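User: Just a sanity check before I run the rest of the batch. Below are the structure tokens for the first item. I only need the designed sequence back.
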């Protein structure tokens, strides 16, 4: 009986039994065996394979029988296969070996092959092989091997517990971190590691998170076997069984002691002065902010004290920085000792220190501390054989009396310190909040004017000037106004005093002159030739600029159609008080250009006669304060009369401001003053209203008699 119909040596294989049924039965068993089975001849050619073997090689039986399958595998592998086959056939011993089978174009497989020699009745050798596919088993073994390696060699401590937190397994890193051996902790509850630093609420929250989310992660303080408490980063994961219940917990821990120490070092460097070990500027700002919050809660005050050592630079220059550093250390120790418990002292740079005095029921409670600080700074310091002496200038401000933020408090204390230095050093000075408020208002006002200039929020209004006797309009005075976005149209009194002696006054003065010249050009194009006097009241800071004449020349050249004689610059009497000679020189240079001058507010200064004699102004303006009350005040009347007489004596024209009534005009005419301006004639008005007003204006009949 044969197992196959192979035309080769397979036909010679005979088995006991003659029944065809037995033959078919054996064939079925052979082909239904789950593991691949094959038979090879002495030339290593397959002569018999079962169905499982065909599946393994992925080939039909007719392609396998009679072939070595050498073309399906790499040559190096085939050499290995043939070597083992040859050994089995020659020696007749069973060989069990692991092999890698790499069919070309397919994924390699790991197999266990059992090979035996079979001899038939004719003495022919055959190789019988059984293949066990161990690919998946090998993968699992490799995973387990890697897992075991990771568990054993991991730098992180690994602890496995059962569902009740009893320790079942730990790795070497765990033992190294905790100081416990595996034998000492196996079976113990994980509580053996607790440090006592955490509350029961902490652990309750940890377990609630584990139950809800399946893991917990965070920093924790644990205790080593030796009793040392250490910080670690801990991750706990719950592992469930197939029924969804917790089977065990896996904990991974990393000792972060070194990291914490490094972190603490960095924080110390970031928040403390390296020389004196006092808080630095960063930590100081935080402490001031915290103290301010405490003040608000307790309804108390705090003091921010700025200290600067007097004479420290001289010591550094004379004895060197090393001695200077020793001095700073010694003084800082003394000043810190002079403070109360709860107060802070910081070094913010060089020889500058800031103290924060908290919990002051009264600001006066601060004074004894300030006196002790002055004493601590001024006491002699001996370094080697050298006795050094310095002192301190101290500025102090109080919160909430000085109701600003922490940064501003330090600035204010700094400002007060400079006042102490200016006052003679070795003393303290309190910051003046009222003065600071005034400075803030001044600064804000300057910023408002600056924005107005940048955005062209200024306009000129024009007030007519007339000859009352003849009824003619002799010109207009340009009067500046600010178009405030919220307050509306503002008069000069609300912004000009703010920029007095400020560079913006120069810019504004030039703007007025240029705008007036532009307006004169427009009127001239309408057929109206109208002299304009600029009432910006050319400020001393502008008039005394070395290049005033050059700048005026440039403005005039920008308006070539305007006769310079139509421009009249009004100079306040007090503007020239500082340097009459210089002002006179500038005015003469401008006169050479054709520009005229008027002395404004004449009679309000102290040197009117000097001005008349030395300043080349062709027009004198009687201040309205005298004109307004001349009808009821004999002194004012006498002043007006005197100014008119002086003008005639010096051969100057005279014009009166502040003519509010017909009676004012009549009185001035009787005194010999024909020129006037004021509300009784016309109020200042926009430029577009001037032509209509001129056409309609008539002098009072009584004035023309």
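Assistant: Here's the designed sequence for the first item:
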């Amino acid at each position: 009986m044969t197992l196959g119909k192979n035309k080769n040596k397979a036909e010679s294989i005979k088995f006991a039994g003659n029944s065809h049924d037995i033959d078919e039965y054996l064939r079925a068993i052979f082909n239904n065996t789950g593991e691949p089975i094959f038979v090879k001849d002495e030339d290593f050619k397959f002569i018999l394979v079962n169905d499982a073997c065909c599946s393994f090689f992925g080939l039909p039986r007719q392609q396998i029988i009679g072939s070595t399958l050498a073309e399906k595998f790499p040559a190096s592998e085939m050499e290995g296969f043939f070597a083992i086959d040859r050994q089995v056939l020659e020696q007749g011993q069973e060989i069990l070996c692991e092999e890698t089978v790499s069919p070309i174009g397919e994924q390699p497989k790991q197999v266990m092959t059992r090979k035996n020699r079979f001899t038939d009745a004719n003495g022919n050798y055959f190789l019988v092989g059984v293949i066990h596919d161990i690919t998946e088993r090998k993968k699992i073994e490799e995973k387990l091997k890697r897992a075991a390696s990771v568990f054993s060699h991991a730098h992180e401590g690994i602890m496995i517990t059962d569902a009740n937190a009893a320790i079942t397994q730990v790795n070497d890193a765990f033992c190294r971190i905790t100081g416990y051996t595996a034998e000492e902790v196996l079976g113990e509850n994980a509580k053996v590691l607790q440090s006592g630093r955490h509350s029961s609420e902490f652990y309750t929250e940890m377990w609630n998170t584990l139950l809800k989310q399946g893991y917990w992660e965070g920093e924790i303080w644990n205790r080593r076997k030796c009793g040392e408490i250490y910080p670690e980063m801990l991750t706990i994961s719950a592992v469930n069984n197939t029924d969804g219940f917790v089977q065990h917990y896996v904990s991974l821990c990393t000792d972060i002691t070194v990291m914490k120490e490094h972190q603490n070092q960095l924080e110390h460097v970031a928040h403390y002065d390296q020389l004196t070990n006092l808080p630095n500027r960063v930590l100081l700002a935080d402490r001031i902010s915290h103290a301010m919050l405490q003040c608000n809660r307790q309804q108390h005050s705090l003091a921010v004290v700025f200290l600067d050592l007097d004479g420290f630079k001289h010591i550094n220059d004379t004895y060197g920085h090393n001695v200077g550093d020793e001095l700073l250390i010694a003084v800082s120790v003394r000043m810190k000792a002079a403070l109360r418990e709860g107060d802070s002292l910081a070094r913010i740079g060089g020889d500058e220190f800031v103290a924060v005095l908290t919990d002051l029921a009264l600001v006066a409670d601060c004074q004894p501390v300030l006196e002790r600080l002055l004493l601590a700074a001024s006491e002699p310091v001996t370094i080697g054989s050298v006795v050094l002496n310095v002192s301190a200038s101290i500025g102090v401000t109080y919160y909430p009396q000085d109701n600003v933020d922490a940064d501003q408090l330090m600035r204010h204390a700094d400002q007060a310190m400079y006042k102490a230095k200016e006052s003679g050093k070795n003393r303290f000075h309190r910051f003046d909040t009222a003065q600071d408020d005034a400075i803030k208002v001044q600064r804000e006002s300057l910023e408002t004017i600056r924005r107005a200039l940048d955005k062209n929020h200024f306009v000129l209004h024009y007030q007519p000037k007339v000859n009352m006797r003849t009824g003619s309009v002799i010109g207009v005075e340009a009067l500046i106004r600010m178009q405030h976005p919220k307050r509306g149209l503002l008069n000069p009194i609300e912004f000009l005093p703010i920029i007095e002696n400020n560079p913006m006054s120069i810019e504004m003065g030039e703007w007025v002159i240029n705008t007036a010249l532009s307006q004169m050009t427009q009127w001239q194009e309408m057929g109206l030739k109208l002299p304009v006097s600029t009432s910006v009241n050319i400020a001393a800071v502008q008039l005394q600029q070395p290049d005033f004449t050059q700048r005026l020349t440039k403005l005039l050249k920008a308006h070539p159609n305007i006769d310079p004689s139509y421009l009249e610059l009004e100079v306040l009497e007090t503007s020239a008080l500082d340097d009459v000679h210089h002002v006179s020189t500038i005015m003469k240079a401008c006169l050479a250009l054709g520009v005229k001058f008027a002395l404004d507010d004449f009679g309000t200064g102290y040197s009117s006669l000097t001005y008349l004699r030395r300043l080349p102004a062709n027009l004198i303006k009687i201040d309205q304060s005298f004109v307004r009350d001349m009808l009821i005040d004999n002194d004012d009347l006498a002043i007006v009369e005197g100014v008119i007489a002086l003008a005639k004596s010096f051969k100057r024209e005279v014009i009166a401001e502040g003519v509010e009534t017909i009676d004012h005009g009549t009185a001035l005419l009787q005194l010999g003053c024909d020129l006037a301006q004021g509300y009784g004639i016309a109020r200042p008005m926009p430029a577009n209203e001037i032509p209509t007003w001129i056409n309609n204006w008539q002098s009072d009949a009584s004035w023309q008699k």
